Amino acid sequence: MSRVGRAPVSIPQGVTVAISGQNVTAKGKGGQLSLTLDDEVSAEIKDNQVVVKPHETDKRSRMIWGLSRNLLKNLVKGVAEGFKVNLEINGVGYRAAVQGKNLSLQLGFSHDVIFPIPDGITIKCDKPTSIAISGADRHLVGQVAANIRALRKPEPYKGKGIKYETETVRRKEGKKK
User: Fold this and answer.
1) Those residues with Cβ within 8 angstroms of residue 175's Cβ, 6 or more apart along the chain or in another chain
2) Which residues, at least 6 apart from 169, have a Cβ–Cβ distance to it below 8 Å?
3) CB 161, CB 109: distance < 8 Å
4) Are residues 95 and 158 in the same domain?
5) How confident is the model at residue 1 (pLDDT cuts 50, 70, 90)?
6) Angle between the N-to-C axes of helices 59-80 and 138-150, in degrees from 0 to 180, rounded to the nearest 10
7) What is the pLDDT of residues 118-157, one digit of tens each?
């Protein structure tokens, strides 16, 4: 039995979940998201909770069971609260600014890096050295944060680059005379 899959997903107030076959749709203040479940599992609503059940008891079905339950949990939490990732920029002259539908980054290159902001994502730069990425889709928020970080990863000697707020950069000692 999957310990993760067994737990039901509670539906918070203000969120409506509709299930039609293998398609699950959630609507809330964060927007509308949908998910297509694998054929190995099915979902149903009981007592204001979504319960996921596998059709078989083989290993693959149990794995898909836990995965589907967590994807549903992220779907419901995304339309209810949303997800947020914070990035920090370290380096002399490194800065970021939102200009319309683009994120303009100065990262020590000879040119500014322009990153187009995808639909469903909100990016704020309260300070020139911090970037706050938020949205309803957890996968999209994480992917956008990873793409921005990949533009200039933090290097180990001076720590310059873009890093997650919770990330620690292991520093190396420089050359000795």
Assistant:
1) none
2) 154, 156, 159, 163
3) no
4) yes
5) low
6) 90
7) 999 999 999 999 999 999 999 999 999 999 999 999 999 9
- Amino acid, single-letter form, for residue 175: K
* Model confidence at 98: pLDDT above 70: yes
Q: How far is Cα 50 from Cα 130, in angstroms, rounded to an integer?
A: 37
Q: Can you read off the two tokens belonging to residue 170?
A: 């292991």
Residue range 5-11: mean pLDDT, rounded: 91
Neighbouring C-alpha atoms within 13 Å toward the C-beta of 8: 12
pLDDT at position 177: 80
Quick one: tokens of 2? 């999957």
Domain end residue (candidates: 41, 57, 80):
80
Question: Do 104 and 37 share a structural domain?
Answer: no
| In a shared domain, residues 102 and 159 | yes
Please give the distance of CA 108 from its chain centroid, rounded to a whole number: 27
Structure tokens at 175: 């050359």
Phi, psi angles (nearest 5°) of residue 135: 180, 175
User: Which whole number is the average pLDDT over 46-71?
Assistant: 92
